[in-house]
Amino acid sequence: MHFDLDDWQETARRSFRKYLDAEVAPLVEAHEDAHRPPPPEVLQKMGEFGLLGGLLPEAQGGAGLDYLTYCTLLCELSQVWPSLRSIVSTSNLVLMIIAQRGTPEQQQRWLGDLISGRKTAFFALTEPNVGSDASNVETRARRDGDGWRLNGRKLYISNGTGADLGVVFARSGEGDGAGVSAFVVEAGTPGFSAREVRSMGMNACPLGELLFEDVALPPDHLIGTEGEAFAIAKHYLNVGRCFVSFTCLGLSIAAYEAALRYAGEREQFGRKIGGFQLVQQMIADMMTGVETSRLLACRAADALDRSAPDRGRACSMAKRHNSDTALRVCETALQVHGGAGYTRDFPVERYYRDVRHLTIAEGTNQLQALLLAQGALGISALRG
Ligand SMILES: Cc1cc2nc3c(=O)[nH]c(=O)nc-3n(C[C@H](O)[C@H](O)[C@H](O)COP(=O)(O)OP(=O)(O)OC[C@H]3O[C@@H](n4cnc5c(N)ncnc54)[C@H](O)[C@@H]3O)c2cc1C
C-alpha cells in the first residue's frame, strides 16, 4: 500500500504551499495575538484553491477532488495556520451537508457564497449539557405554522461568532422520542445571538456560545428529512475526523521541522544540541510519530475515497492516534527548544496550544476508543 502523490497532486500541493508561505504565513502571529479572524481575501483564496467545496463535483461548483488530494491541502494549511484550517474545514463540512442533503433551492441559495469563501459557516451540535452524548440534544425546534421556532443553546462552536450562517441540530416535534433535525440559521436572524468563548489556542478561529431565543425559521431552512439528522451529524463527524487526522499530521510536521532546525543550530557544552543522544531520541520519536500519523491519515482518506465498509473505523483510529501523537510531538518539540520553546519568540509554543483541543473536538479520544472497541467486540460500553 502506498499513498504517493501523483504529479498533478504534487503540483497542486506545491502551488498551494507557495501561496501560503508567501501570503498567509506573514499574517499568522498578528492575527493570533489580536484574536482576529483571517482577512476576507484569504478566505476567498481558500475557495480558489479548492479548500471550500473542492470535494464536490464540478457540476455543483466544486473541483471534483478526492479525499486524499483535499486532505493533503488541509495538511499544508495546518502547518501554516491551524485556525484558518478550522474555519475552512468547518465551513466545508457545512457546505457539503447543504450540497449533499439540501434541496436544489437550498443549494442555489447558500452554496455559491460558501464555496467562494465570501461567507463562512458553523456546525452546531454540542450544548452545555450535551457533549459526548451528542444524540441527546436539548435544543428544541417546535412547529410554528408551516415553519419552526428554535430555542436552546450551543457551546464550543468553531467559527461560532464570525460565521454568516450555520447548521444547527435540534430535537424537533413533541415528546421525548422526537428525532433530531438540522436547520440552517443565518446570522442576524431575530432571536439568534452569539458570544465568544475565550480558549487556550486557535485564537483566530472564534469559539462561540450560541443562543436561540424563539428563533422563527421558514420551512425551507430544514435540511434533509425531519427527525433524521443525527445520522447526518454522525456521517459528517466521521469525515471531520479524517480532516482532523490530517490537521494533526500537519501540526506534527511543523513541530518536528522546527525542532530539527533548532537542534541543528543551538549550541551547549561547545556543540550542537542535536549531537546529544537524548535530543536525538526526541527527534527519532517525533519522526516516527509523523510517519505513523501520515500512514493512518492517508489510510482514512483512502477508505473515504473508496467508500470502504471500514471507513468509520479508519477515521476514528486516525483521529485518535494522530491527535494523541501530535500532542506528544508538539510537546517534545517545545522541550527540544528549552526555555525558548516556552516563549512567543518561537512557533512551537503556539503549536502546543493549537493542537491541544484536537483530542477533544470531533468526539473525544475516549469516545473514539469506545467506538473502536465496540466495533471489535460487538459490545457497546455506552448503552445497554
Ligand atoms: C476547540 C473546540 C472546537 C469545537 N468545535 C465544535 C464545533 O464546531 N461544533 C460542535 O458541535 N462541537 C464542537 N466542539 C465540542 C466538542 O465536540 C466537545 O467538546 C466534545 O464532543 C466533548 O464534549 P464535552 O466537552 O461536553 O465533554 P464531555 O462529554 O462532558 O466529556 C468530559 C470527559 O469525559 C469523558 N467521557 C464522557 N463520556 C464518556 C464515556 N462514556 N466513557 C468514557 N469517557 C467519557 C470525555 O472523553 C472527556 O474526557 C469543539 C470543542 C473544542 C474544544
UniProtKB/TrEMBL annotation:
Cofactor: FAD
EC id: 1.3.99.-
Cited SUPFAM superfamilies: Acyl-CoA dehydrogenase C-terminal domain-like, Acyl-CoA dehydrogenase NM domain-like
UniProtKB keywords: FAD, Flavoprotein, Oxidoreductase, Plasmid
Record-level Gene Ontology MF annotations: acyl-CoA dehydrogenase activity; flavin adenine dinucleotide binding
Occurrences of domain Acyl-CoA dehydrogenase/oxidase N-terminal (ranges): 9-117
Pfam annotation, one family: Acyl-CoA_dh_1
Positions of transmembrane segments: none
Domain Acyl-CoA dehydrogenase/oxidase C-terminal positions: 230-376
Domain of life: Bacteria
Acyl-CoA oxidase/dehydrogenase middle domain boundaries: 123-215
Family label: Belongs to the acyl-CoA dehydrogenase family.
Protein name: Acyl-CoA dehydrogenase
Organism encoding this protein: Roseovarius indicus
Lineage: Bacteria, Pseudomonadati, Pseudomonadota, Alphaproteobacteria, Rhodobacterales
Record gene name: acdA_14
